[in-house]
Amino acid sequence: MIYKNIAGIKVPSVGTGTWEMGGRNTPDYSKDSHWVNIIQKAISLGMGHIDTAEIYGGGHAEELTGLAIRDFRRNDLFITSKVWHTNLKKSDVLRAAERSLSRLGTGYFDLYLIHFPNPSVPVEETIEAMNFLADQKLTRLIGVSNFEKPLLKKAIRASSYPIAANQIEYGLLSRNKGVYTQNAENEIIPYCRENNISIIAWRPLGKDNFGKLASNPFILSLSKKYQKTPAQIALNWVVSNDNVLTIPKTGSFEHLFDNALSTDFELSKTDRDILNKTFTQ
Ligand SMILES: NC(=O)c1ccc[n+]([C@@H]2O[C@H](COP(=O)([O-])OP(=O)(O)OC[C@H]3O[C@@H](n4cnc5c(N)ncnc54)[C@H](OP(=O)(O)O)[C@@H]3O)[C@@H](O)[C@H]2O)c1
């Protein structure tokens, strides 16, 4: 596994997403042991960079993460959670963080993110709350998600702590046309690189559109050439960008193994160039 730096902390470049583990917006307890096993296996395979959020499964994804991490040394893990956009007033952020930490059963986040912008709450107010959490050592790092450049600039200006990361949609199928952000590759990623902000790419496999990658003739030819699956080619491409890490989600042990072994090879520059010409969105 290749590690990258997020504000000086060493983090696996390929981690684990938890969206739809334990429900969508409300809890689903029916597959708890499966999800706990998946998260634990991900950690054992070197993907102990776990991404969750208070909204996932109505909090249950955090509870599952909490159950999964109990058996590991906390220092070896990098746990991210996010405050939902309806909780961005200062007092709401503080209460949301407290609830998330309690569900996770840990005393601190490694990274706490503003999940989505909310134009009705000044970003300065939310950043003040995030700074307070950092002051109190309830989070090691703070960051944002789904922020485009103008708002990111405001957040940087308002914060006494570095904005360590911006989590945005990014992958071969969404280079500059994400659902919530435009110009990831042309504008947001270069701006973040200049400002020492890591990018954490969500939906690196395109989720339900993964078939478009898996059936693409050029990806299939690379799969044969490197002896890697289409998912491994796609993840490798994502993290071949300097300041980009990623957090694919899977419910399959086989896919988990794939994802864990997606950084132990290097796509040639020519192959990356052809991929870039093949997937232009
Ligand atoms: N900040 C935000 O606003 C935001 C938004 C969305 C997501 N996220 C985060 O990003 C994470 C990842 O995004 P995502 O879950 O939407 O999309 P994703 O990781 O691109 O795609 C997940 C899908 O890919 C499949 N998959 C995973 N590994 C595979 C492999 N090796 N081979 C074949 N298929 C594979 C999974 O199916 P199987 O289960 O069958 O493997 C699953 O259906 C989320 O879980 C969440 O933590 C953040």
Percentage of residues assigned to helices: 40-55%
Strand order of the largest sheet: 3-4-5-6-7-8-9-10
Q: According to CATH, what is the class?
A: Alpha Beta
Sheet/helix structural class: alpha/beta
Report the average pLDDT across residues: 97
Please state the second-level CATH architecture: Alpha-Beta Barrel
Bound molecules: NADP nicotinamide-adenine-dinucleotide phosphate
Q: End-to-end distance, in Å?
A: 28 Å
> Beta fraction of the residues?
15-25%
Count of individual beta strands: 10
Q: Tally the helices.
A: 11
- Tell me the count of domains: 1
> Over the alpha carbons, how many angstroms does the gyration radius reach?
18 Å
Shape: globular
| Model regions low in confidence, pLDDT < 50 over at least 5 residues | none
Q: What is the fold-level CATH name, i.e. the topology?
A: TIM Barrel
What sequence of helices (H) and strands (E) makes up the elements? EEEHEHEHEHEHEHEHHHEHH
CATH superfamily: NADP-dependent oxidoreductase domain
Major sheet: size, sense and barrel closure?
Answer: 8 strands, parallel
Write up this protein:
The protein has eleven helices and ten strands. It is an alpha/beta fold and 281 residues long. It has one domain (3-278): NADP-dependent oxidoreductase domain (TIM Barrel). It has an eight-stranded parallel sheet. A two-stranded antiparallel sheet has the order 1-2. Helix 5 (149-158) links the parallel strand 7 and strand 8 (163-169). The longest helix has 15 residues, at 90-104. 48% of the residues are buried. The chain binds NADP nicotinamide-adenine-dinucleotide phosphate (NAP).
